[in-house]
Amino acid sequence: MTILAATAFSQLVGMIYAAAADPQQWPLFLNQFASLMHSGGTILFMHDFADSRFVADGVPGVVAEAAGFEPVFVESYATHYSSKNVWTALEESMLPGTAVVSEMLLPERELVRTEFFADWLHPQNLRHAIGGVVLKSGTQAMKFTSLRSSRHGAYGQDELAFYAALMPHLQQACKINQQFAQLRKINTAQTSALDALPMAVWLCKHDASMLICNRAAKAIVDGQRGLQLDSIGRLRAEHIGENDSLQSAFRRAGSASALTRTRLHKRACTSDHFTPRVGSTLQIRRLCSQSHLAVTVSPLSSDGETGGFFHQEADIIVFATDPDHSSAPMEMLQSAYGLTKHQARLATALINGSDLKSYAVKHGIGYETARTHLKQVLSKTGASKQSELIRLFLYCAGGQR
Amino acid sequence: MRIDITQFSRVVDGIYEAALQPTQWPIALSGIAGLFEVDKALLFTAQLRPRQGGFAFLHGLTEHSLQAWVSKYIEHDIWTRETVAKGFMRDGAVVLDHELCSDEALTSSLYYREFLVEQDIRYLCAGVVFGLESAPYPVTGLSLYKGHGAGKFNLQDRQVVTLLVGHLSRALGTMFRLSDLEMQVASSYAALNLLRVGVLLVGERGNVVFSNQAARKSFSNSGVTGIGLRAGNPLHDGDGWIYLRESAQQRTLDDAIKVAIMHDPMAAAHLTTGMRVPSKTCDQAITLQIAPLAAQNEFSVSNQHACAIIFMNDSRTRFELDRNALRSLYNLTDAEMGVAHVLLQAESLRDVASQLGISENTVKKHVQALFYKTQTNRQAELIRLLLSLPKRC
């Protein structure tokens, strides 16, 4: 191959991998491939050999992308002609990674007699195909096919070789694509769990700069409720004196030895001297309220397999509870545990530290009535004492914030 | 001139394989070296040592020689100096030795006489994968070296290296992004495991797609707790389905999950359902709170995304306070910590007194001291503070 051809090949391969990380880029590759091959339509899709079905909603990370087809033909293929495709039926036994041209599967004179040709290929002025199975999992397969008219003739040996050379890259790209999809899926799920927590959570690097935070944490920073981010994204307390203790808590929790913990050079650091890392709990005063933020700064131990490059790894975790924003709204207690309005009001008062006697006085009810309410609250929630009630409702606000 | 496309393609494949499996970089590098028939090659972050989070992959070079370069010869390195001076330190640039300095200038330099000769290095073809202005990525270079006996690098070598540098840049970028995502996943997982409360995420078919450590602990003892997991197909169903011993309770739970899945929490914030699952043996219980989960804004690629969240409180779990943290931060005495600990489980101060075998007045004194030291005013506040602490600090 000449250097010019190699450059074209290399660019095409580059497009495959660009799409691996960002599936929106598949059309770029498909269009480029089609123009190099003088193809009409080019498609990357999932096919199920069990029922000859076009798989529209595949496993995570699998794409269905087409270039050069009128959308109506992709639609009619997906709904009907997938099962009439005389070529795919013959490809079932092919090993993933094998490339074929349509004439190897079925002689042209037989093709033209089929319904698939008459009703789907012919109206699009298509007659020849090049394709193969990229990956296979059970009966489902990832297929990459390109089609062209009789004017451009059958795909030749050179073109088959070119297509075959792309195959390992398509396979590799699908693996990368699936890895991204898998990680994104887990990340999305875990992020939503963190977002549902009533307490604020920040994950920081060893130098206190924030990598990840949940919704409650963002609310504290945005609402200027005691903690803020400085110009380079480090977590700090708004009160200068408080910030000193927060920063020293960060220093105790993160350690200098964390500098060397990366995935590739894990072994190199085991000989380094080890400084024990300790967590701290602080009360952070703030301007917006009389109450204090209860903040915990803890070292985050990673399993060593997932350390990022260039220090993009979380080293310290910060939890914060804002007493002004942590009790469950009364209507939620009512719906979650079937409490009446009175019972919910009593529960809220107890959670906030009131005792039964002063509650009764404040609301002008008898002590015995209050006691009855309490018994009902405890029996409906299954809590046996005030501390359990608090423990229960610490998380009741979840999901809604 | 022609190049072997099969071999080129295999080398490129190796580069992206390494993006998925970073341990494969040495193999990818030796593939590159093989393509040019050179016996020495280097792929490294020029300004960032491995200790600082960078990397250096060597082919045919020793760790020792790299150390010598770092500690001594870096300031004499005429090639690197000229690469920067002549403006080649930009993404995708490829440069040959004679474009950097004349043969005379090289062979008369201390760098050549003391360092390069020692390694039998005479010719260079260097590609800049990430240049000086490609933050957040650090300056990264690919260097291919030939000895005296071998011929110079030619124009085709340069063109092929240019192609490879493009692939290296994309592959390393992919690797960094995957590594970032892995880091995020690992850290939020660690954060969820630090919680005292059990957290379950439920997918649209009611299957559990995530459970944290505390939740798994309660499930592991299903004989006593009466709550467990019924496994499905791990590929499609995640952890499976929540199983309750009592069929009436199972129906309540299934209904609550159904309601939570169907509703958008923004529209119906009140749809949290609470239920109590009594344990078989005693009055202890697990409390479940089932709530809808806001859909993530980001495009979801799978049908397994979480639609509802369940918080799981296991009343059997005793709270172990982190005594060291409490001592160092609030300056609590052992007696005060003892009172705090019992207070979390007890009904009243009298109860605390009898459990600890001390007088109620003493308990009151300790509680006052606890209020003072933790800057709380009420028992409920103190308990809330203690309960909010993660499992370990």
Q: How many beta-strand segments of chain B?
A: 12
Strand arrangement, largest sheet of chain B? 2-1-5-4-3
What fraction strand of chain A? 15-25%
Give the radius of gyration of chain B.
32 Å
The termini of chain B sit apart by 65 Å
The number of E-state strands of chain A comes to: 13
Uncertain residue segments of chain A: 58-62, 256-274, 303-308, 397-401
Comma- or semicolon-separated keywords:
A: alpha+beta; five-stranded antiparallel β-sheet; 16 helices; disordered C terminus; B: about 400 residues; alpha+beta; 17 helices; about 20% strand; elongated
Topology summary:
The complex is a heterodimer of chains A (401) and B (393).
Chain A (H helix, E strand, L loop, with lengths): L2 H19 L4 H12 L3 E8 L4 E3 L9 E3 L3 H9 L8 H4 L7 E3 H4 L2 H4 L3 H7 L6 E10 L2 E9 L8 H40 L3 E5 L5 E4 L1 H8 L4 E3 L5 E3 L2 H14 L12 H4 L10 E5 L8 E7 L16 E6 L8 H8 L3 H11 L4 H7 L4 H15 L4 H8 L8
Helix pairs in contact in A: 1-2, 1-8, 12-13, 13-15, 14-15
Chain B lengths: L4 H16 L4 H12 L3 E6 L10 E4 L3 H9 L6 H8 L8 E3 H4 L2 H5 L2 H10 L3 E8 L9 E7 L8 H39 L4 E6 L4 E4 L1 H8 L1 H4 L1 E4 L3 H4 L3 E4 L2 H16 L10 E6 L6 E8 L13 E9 L8 H8 L3 H12 L3 H8 L3 H15 L4 H10 L5
Antiparallel strand pairs in B: 1-2, 1-5, 3-4, 4-5, 6-7, 6-12, 8-9, 10-11, 11-12
Helix pairs in contact in B: 1-2, 1-8, 14-15, 14-16, 15-16
Q: Overview of this structure, please?
A:
The complex is a heterodimer of chains A (401) and B (393). By secondary structure, chain A is of the alpha+beta class. Chain A has 16 helices and 13 strands. Helix content of chain A is 43%, strand content 17%. In chain A, strands 1, 2, 3, 4, 5 and 6 form a 6-stranded antiparallel sheet that branches. A 5-stranded antiparallel sheet of chain A has the order 8-7-13-12-11. In chain A, helix 1 (3-21) packs parallel to helix 8 (157-196), helix 13 (341-351) packs across helix 15 and helix 14 packs across helix 15 (367-381). In chain A, 43% of the residues are buried. In chain B, the strands form 3 sheets. Chain B has a 5-stranded antiparallel sheet with strand order 2-1-5-4-3. A 5-stranded antiparallel sheet of chain B has the order 7-6-12-11-10. The interface between A and B is large, with 113 and 121 residues.
